[in-house]
Amino acid sequence: MALPKILTTSNFLSQPRCGFLRIFSSWMTPSRTSHCHDPILTTISEAIKVFPTTPLDSSLKRILPSLTPNHLIDLINLNPYSLSPPSLLSFFKWLSSQHHFRLSIHSYYAMVNFLCANKMLADAHSLLQFVVSRKGKNSASSVFASVLEARGTHQSNSVFSVLMDAYTDSAFFSDAIQCFRLVRKHNLQTPFHSCGYLFDRLVKLNLTDPARAFYEEILDCGYPPDVCKFNVLMNRLCKEHKMNDAQKVFDEIPKRGLRPTAVSFNTLINGYCKSGNLEEGFRLKRFMMENKIFPDVFTYSALINGLCKEGLLDDANKLFMEMSEGGLVPNDVTFTTLINGHCANGRADLGVEIYQQMLSKGVKPDLITFNTLINGLCKVGYLSEANKLVVEMTQRGFKPDKFTYTTLIDGYCKEGDLGSALEIKKVMVQKGIELDNVAFTALISGLCREGEVSDAERTLREMAEAGIKPDDATYTMVIHGFCKKGDVKMGFKLLDEMRRDGHFPGVVTYNVILNGLCKKGQMKNADMLLDAMLNLGVVPDDITYNILLEGHCKNGKREDFDKLRSEKGLVQDYASYTSLIQDFRSKEREKR
User: Angle at CA 576, nearest 5°, toward 575 and 578?
Assistant: First the structure.
């Protein structure tokens, strides 16, 4: 005989609509009478004892029509035949699956209290989470009151901890906090474990302000202070650039009878350094040492990173030496930070020196270290050295990634070695590595620089097909390439495409096309484009007007134009441009 179906939360939800409504349409408290010696309870208990040898369907078939939710509640609360908790739970699940029986919400509350009293917390949690999902948000007060009322003989405080966890797992955080407050209000045992669980969830979901407020509340209620939780809060606040709040959390540590750890100091120092406040970072380092907590590798790494970001490389080097002389061995992060600082300052040669020191101290570089150094070498045009480093990283077991290849493409394009850049693009395609915005833009820029504008335009299309929207600067590069070759018509085509694609071309883009028109002597079209710019709200700059003046100059004598412009000065607005052109044309007519 097959075992009866055990009803889980998912089974509840998968019941046919009519069955679902039948089971949960009676969320009420029926009138109660004592059933301690009720023969129905006796029959049920005997049937449970012989289950699964005899199926419940057959042994309870006769009494099932007369069974009520109160019988189930009495069976749970009184348990006159001392049935084992697992067997009672199995019966509860079996009964909930019967088509002709409707469970009341109070049946659930009774079972949850029974399970918690018998330390079956996971099962209680499952039932309560289902109840919470049905009740929804802002239900904590009513559910708490019902659970409290249904306690009966099962006086277990863990039921409120389970209820709090159920709300937390359902992401009903305000309800979970309300449960905590209700526990305090009724002078029940505070569920500290559930408080910690809720705090961790809030922090994990980046709900830092609610987490901080809740932590302060539970600390005031006797929750054991934990420096690790203070550190976690500080870390989140630092990442959100709330340094004043992070400092307040740090200051709270000794007030709660704790001593800040090296992690506490490092977290705050790192936050200050990343926000550019090196003064506070170094103040904390001094304060750290005054409290007999010695700076470690992470302390120095944070400070060195801050100095490098500010371009204070001499100070960064001094701190690096202080660290080494103090017996601390810099880790890969420290070395990579210093390498990046030198490379960002255009001193890839010093970055290479640091890299050699790193190897000599037995510190293994990682992919970030290699990419940092390759990027620095490419930026100063040391492509040969960069390629050697790619070979070395491969020998050390690291595979070049998108950043590696993109850096090389950008480097080759800037050095005019378009062939090598396109070869690397092929390698990326073969390896299934998608090109990003930087790689596409570098290739387009390199192709335009070499006059390969048709290929640049094809790459622009390829970029769009890859789902990467070219920006105004990328479009303008290609437009400039076509205009430089005299193909202003293609420049206009791309300008229209930009507008259709949701771009709002700026003055730089228009200046490029104006320059192309002026070089072709199409001054009427150039003036019409100027009017179109003004109508579209694009404000011309001094470059715009002087491009146009240079164009008009080609239709007259250069010396007269130069004389007139020197008298007027640099043209900066439409009125000056119009006045200058009118004067220029008047003088031309007088000479004729």
Answer: 65
> Could you say which DSSP state residue 62 is in?
T
Which range among 13-17, 51-55, 577-581, 582-586 has the greatest average pLDDT?
Answer: 51-55
Cα–chain center distance at 572: 45
Cβ 40 vs Cβ 67: under 8 Å: yes
Summarize pLDDT for 86-95 with one digit per residue, the tens. Answer: 999 998 999 8
The whole-angstrom separation of Cα 589 and Cα 419 is: 54
* CA angle, residues 472, 473, 477, in degrees to nearest 5: 115
Burial class (CB in 10 A: 0-12, 13-18, 19+), 307: buried
Q: What is the pLDDT of residues 384-433, one digit of tens each?
A: 999 999 999 999 999 999 999 999 999 999 888 989 999 999 999 999 99
What angle, rounded to 10 degrees, do the helices at 105-117 and 121-135 form? 150
Q: The pTM is what?
A: 0.72
What pLDDT, on the 0 to 100 scale, is given for residue 545?
81
Q: Which residue has the tokens 């049905």?
A: 134
Query: Is residue 228 exposed (0-12), middle (13-18) or buried (19+ Cβ within 10 Å)?
Result: exposed
Angle at 356 between CA 351 and CA 360, to 5 degrees: 145
